[in-house]
User: Fold this.
Amino acid sequence: MADVNAQYNVAAPESLPVRIAAYQRRRMFDRFLQACGLPDPEATILDVGVTSDRTYEASNYLEAWYPHKHRVTACGVDDASFLAELYEGMRFIKADALDLPFAERSYDVVHASAVIEHVGSAANQAKMIAEAARVCRRAFFITTPNRWFPVEFHTVLPLVHWLPPRIFRDIMRRTGRGFFAAEENLNLMTRTDLLRACSAAGLRDFDARVETASLGFWPSNLLLIGLRRGGGAA
Assistant:
């Protein structure tokens, strides 16, 4: 995945879709804290897939909202080194979600928000889950938009993403959205896809489940929560 963050920013910063996304991210952040037993002043957190974007209020929301910033390491393919300057004690490391440069059980909790749909193939999505599980001691928390929500968050288009992927990608190319036609840039997931990727990741030591966050009555986001059996004891 290249350093192409700006191409994901289709909606204007103060637009309704961006405000809704910020609202949902606050709700998912609260779910993250609850699921992973946070905030904990002693727990270390790895946030995978941080962005160089500063135009959206809720970009890098964990770094902005988590109270114990010196316990957070942010990593991603974008240059987000400004986070270490902005938040005292925080670290930034340039790293690929598919090949994290950390030893097993290096962090208590691994978090990744809206990253897994951007790592490419289904095999890569399973690999990302496996890497998050390998690096965490206690838990991992991975979010992604729900493909079956009627509006696609990246393009802000309704319904076309429900078409078979080949047809959806052709429409993206024909309407000047070729960036989103490439699987490595956007590979949307359903709950079934996420569970299948979780199974392919081989999570033998984890209890994993998929929850949802809804807008109104419709699930808009999928939350993959993995808790290591035994609470992370070596």
